[in-house]
Amino acid sequence: MESNGKAEKHGLERDADLQLLLVGGELLKVRSSSWKKNRFYKLQEDCTTMWHESHRTFKRNQTFSIDEIESVRKGRQSEGLQKHTEAHVEDRCFSIIFKGRRRNLDLIATSAEEARQWVNGLEKIISNMKKLNSQQTSEHWIFNCMRKADKNKDNKMTLKELKHFLRQINIEVDDMYAEVLLCYSNSGSLEGPEIKHFYDLLIYREEIDVIYGKYATTGEQMSVKDLLNFLLNEQREVATMEDAVSLIERYELDDSAKQKNHMTKDGFLMYLHQEEGSIFNPAHKEVFQDMSQPINHYFISSSHNTYLMEDQLKGHSSTEAYIKALMKSCRCVELDCWDGAHGEPIIYHGHTLTSKVLFKDVIKAIKEYAFKTSEYPVILSLENHCTLEQQKLMAKHMISILGSALLTSPLEDQMPTAFPSPQDLKGRFIIKGKRLNKLDAVFSNTSPGVEEDCVSEEDEAAETSNSKTDTNGQKSKIKLAKQLSDLVIYCKSVHFSGFEHAKDKQAFYEMSSFKESKAVNLAETAGNAFIHHNMTKLSRIYPAGSRTDSSNYNPVSLWNAGCQIVALNFQTPSKEMDLNQGRFRSNGVSGYVLKPGFQRYPGTEFDPMTLTKGPWLKRKTFHIMVISAQQLPKLNKDKCKSIVDPLVKVEIDGVPADTCSKETRSIENNGFNPMWNETFQFDIQVPELALVRFLVEDYDSTSQNDLIGQYCLPLTSLQNGYRHVPLLTKHGDVIPSAGLFVHLMLLDAK
Q1: pLDDT in tens, 296-338
Q2: Residue 540 annotated as part of some ligand binding site
Q3: What GO terms fall under cellular component here (predicted)?
């Protein structure tokens, strides 16, 4: 029973790096300065699972899947290796970074060459697995489950092994049905061609047969004309005969059919599993929006207390948290800065038991990872609690480490009157914080001014540090060093004193931060005023201090009000983070999404609460049929007989008039190929602000349903027609073999 995950299936059968992994070897595992132990690591023959031994009294061998790896870093590039190893072992070190909250695996090889081979081999396997299309991933997953079910490795499947396999792929069957399956065999077990026949029965999809049969009019195959009719009538694409020919060329596997410009059912299914058949518009995977508008015209992916890996009271502070956020294209990160020992400023959540990390180490990590997934500007939001001397050192570290990428003066040769664009600021770092004077002082010929002075605390800092106001009701003040002040150019923090005051008294670069409750109240009671405020200013929203568990607030109502920097706790899996991932999935995952025109230009009277009518409101009707799901994961892998009872929820999150949820019935004991064929309709008032979120849950009549998978995207980024929907874990990582199959139609409302 051969797995199609073997080296030859990856095209790496003669690769020296991969051969080293398959043979395996001793690596030094590093947990702390005193805890360093040799462990034997080996890539299993399926090329998808890493095996390692445990040298405990009760020996326990362990494995992890290559799918669980987020990245591999060569050298002392993890916080653990930097802290617990010496510089002379740099070229022998590497780290395996896992998805979700799993701890990094820090390792030291016996030589630099061996470390290089481990890193290269793992990266090749990860890269090749990412290149598999969803149909190949599905086949790979099924064969892997078959291999695991074949306990005695005799390449046969007995009744017991067959039932074990079916439970692995999330299907519950009774003995009678399993015996019926075995009737295809004369020996009482499945082997050879019988397993292939059983596999074909397993992957048969009735819904694909129906769709294909409707359009295949040429000898039970789709001609190029049939395929074009399907693209035009079902997928609602602006397609030509050349487009249909191109799809056949790329996805048809049968050479004889390809020569006749025909598409077989297998080729059709292959096409539906590609990005052309995905729910998400492939054109939106790249930066497609105008990036030359002022930066305040964009929603900006933003993190709160970025340094924290866990809760706000005793959680771990780490450079890893910044790396994870930046690799998700977060473009605004927060740094809470306090005086540290030996004159070095530190970052942590002040007055709590959270651990501390050096300010300079955070700046180094930000410099290294800021522009790996997006080239557009990163805002460093400083919450400054430091004394003058350590503030000066903060400025020195940022200037020396970030170099020319740090914005230290306006881009223009004269006083600017509006923000530059993300395009203008590519690859640059912008500092947000307090400033001693107006920006026009940069262009003044007068004296350089004071070296230090007192300024009021940041609004968030004042709240979290329980600062008191003086007898005149003014917020407490801190001394600010000129060296740090001068680095604040386009994002000067000021207290919010009302929309009229901001309009009359504030410069465009002066921005306010709002606690979530205040911001939500303004959005609900003065939505149009808030939108107009954000047409010329930047607004940052942050979670309430009471969210000590690092929970999140709903960002949608703040986006509806045009707020750009809606900061969330990135470390906490939640619906709110699903929505954030969905909002910024579009525009090339750049971290910048252009706001709708009615949120950018004066003259519109749009209010998200009352929906004042205007030509900018282009209402839509959204029809969706939830057809089926494929290969949903088992939630309780420790219980062999635990099978999911899936149901699907479809949610719209947008303005209050659009926000709603509908769900299918649950299907009992079938997570492999459940079918619903249920249809829903949504009337959408403001499609430009609407997000569509799919949830697949395991139904439970006695307690809350468990999440199986989710996916979120902007309504304006979906494709019409028959589409596959990928499913993600609660952490936002792809579940390789799982998905939904739906039919969508987004039409102008009548």
Answers
A1: 999 999 999 999 998 888 889 999 999 999 999 999 999 999 9
A2: yes
A3: cytoplasm; plasma membrane
